[in-house]
C-alpha cells in the first residue's frame, strides 16, 4: 500500500481510538455512579423487607403484598383451591449496541415459566413489548425507553399496588439482563419471598435485622407506618433491579470498548510497521538511485 494511504488510515484509526477511549472513560464514570446507587437501593430494600417482616410478626398486621404465612396450613390450602392466582411479570430491555443479543436466554426462561392464561406483563423497552406481543402475553402497561427516567420505579410501584389485589396476583417477577441471574427471574412479591439472587450477597453483612419496635414511637399509627414502609420497599426493590440492568449494560459496554481498543491498538502497530517498512524501502530506493547517478556522473 502507498505510504500516503497508510498514513491516512493511521490518522483515521487514531481518531477512532480517541473516540473509543473517551467512550471507555464515560463507561467507567457511569459504572462508579451506578455501583453507588445500586448499593443504596439494595441496602434500603433489604432493610425495608426486614422491617416489614418483623413488624408483621410483632403486630400481626395484614397486607395483600405479604404472604399469608400466619394462616393455618389447612386454610392456606383451602384458599389456594378456591382462588385462581395470577402472576405479574415485569420485563425490562435496553437498547443494545454492537449487534449483541443478551435477551434471548431470558425470553426462553419466560416462555418456560410464565403461563399465558394467568400471567400479565409490564414491559419496558421496545424489545420487551415486541416479545410479549409476538408470544400473545397480556400487556397491562408498557413503557418506552424514553420513559425510563428517575420516576419509573415510582410509576411501576403504583401500578403494582393497584393491580396486586384487584387481579389477585400471587407473585411479581422482574426480568432484566444481569449476570447475577441467568435461568430464573428476580422475585419482588410477596415481600417474604423478595429475592435479588446473587446481587445481594455482598450487601447482606451490612444489615442490622434486629429492631425493637416496642421502644419506638410511631406516628400517626402503626398501620400508616407499615403502609409507608411497603411503599418505600417497592420503590427501592424496583430501583435496585432497574439500576442493576443499567449497571450490567455499562459493564458490557466497557468490555466491548476494551476489546475494540485492543484491536485498534494492534492494527495501529501493524500500520506503523508498514509505514516504517515503506519509508525504509523508499530510502533504499533513493540510496540506490543516488549511487547509480554518482556512477554515471563518474563515468
UniProtKB/TrEMBL annotation:
<protein>
    <submittedName>
        <fullName>Uncharacterized protein</fullName>
    </submittedName>
</protein>
<keyword id="KW-0813">Transport</keyword>
<keyword id="KW-0066">ATP synthesis</keyword>
<keyword id="KW-0139">CF(1)</keyword>
<comment type="similarity">
    <text>Belongs to the ATPase gamma chain family.</text>
</comment>
<keyword id="KW-0472">Membrane</keyword>
<dbReference type="InterPro" id="IPR035968">
    <property type="entry name" value="ATP_synth_F1_ATPase_gsu"/>
</dbReference>
<keyword id="KW-0406">Ion transport</keyword>
<keyword id="KW-0375">Hydrogen ion transport</keyword>
<dbReference type="GO" id="GO:0045259">
    <property type="term" value="C:proton-transporting ATP synthase complex"/>
</dbReference>
<dbReference type="GO" id="GO:0046933">
    <property type="term" value="F:proton-transporting ATP synthase activity, rotational mechanism"/>
</dbReference>
Amino acid at each position: 500500500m502507498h505510504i500516503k494511504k497508510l498514513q491516512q488510515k493511521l490518522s483515521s484509526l487514531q481518531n477512532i481510538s480517541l473516540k473509543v477511549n473517551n467512550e471507555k472513560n464515560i463507561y467507567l464514570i457511569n459504572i462508579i455512579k451506578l455501583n453507588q446507587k445500586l448499593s443504596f437501593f439494595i441496602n434500603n430494600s433489604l432493610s425495608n423487607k426486614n422491617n416489614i417482616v418483623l413488624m408483621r410478626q410483632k403486630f400481626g398486621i395484614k397486607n395483600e403484598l405479604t404472604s399469608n404465612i400466619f394462616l393455618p396450613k389447612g386454610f392456606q390450602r383451602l384458599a389456594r383451591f378456591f382462588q385462581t392466582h395470577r402472576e405479574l411479570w415485569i420485563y425490562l430491555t435496553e437498547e443494545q449496541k454492537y449487534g449483541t443479543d443478551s435477551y434471548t436466554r431470558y425470553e426462553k426462561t419466560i416462555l418456560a415459566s410464565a403461563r399465558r392464561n394467568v400471567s400479565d406483563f409490564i414491559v419496558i423497552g421496545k424489545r420487551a413489548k415486541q416479545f410479549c406481543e409476538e408470544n400473545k402475553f397480556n400487556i397491562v402497561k408498557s413503557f418506552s425507553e424514553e420513559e425510563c427516567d428517575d420516576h419509573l420505579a415510582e410509576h411501576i410501584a403504583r401500578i403494582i399496588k393497584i393491580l396486586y389485589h384487584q387481579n389477585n396476583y400471587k407473585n411479581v417477577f422482574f426480568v432484566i439482563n444481569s449476570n447475577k441471574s441467568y435461568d430464573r427471574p428476580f422475585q419482588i412479591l410477596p415481600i417474604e419471598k423478595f429475592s435479588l439472587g446473587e446481587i445481594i450477597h455482598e450487601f447482606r453483612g451490612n444489615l442490622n435485622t434486629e429492631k425493637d419496635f416496642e421502644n419506638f414511637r410511631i406516628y400517626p399509627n402503626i398501620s400508616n407506618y407499615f403502609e409507608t414502609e411497603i411503599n418505600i420497599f417497592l420503590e427501592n426493590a424496583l430501583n435496585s433491579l432497574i439500576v442493576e440492568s443499567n449497571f450490567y449494560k455499562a459493564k458490557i459496554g466497557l468490555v466491548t470498548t476494551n476489546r475494540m481498543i485492543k484491536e485498534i491498538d494492534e492494527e495501529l502497530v501493524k500500520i506503523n510497521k508498514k509505514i516504517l517498512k515503506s519509508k525504509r524501502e523508499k530510502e533504499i530506493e533513493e540510496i540506490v538511485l543516488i549511487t547509480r547517478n554518482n556512477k554515471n556522473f563518474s563515468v
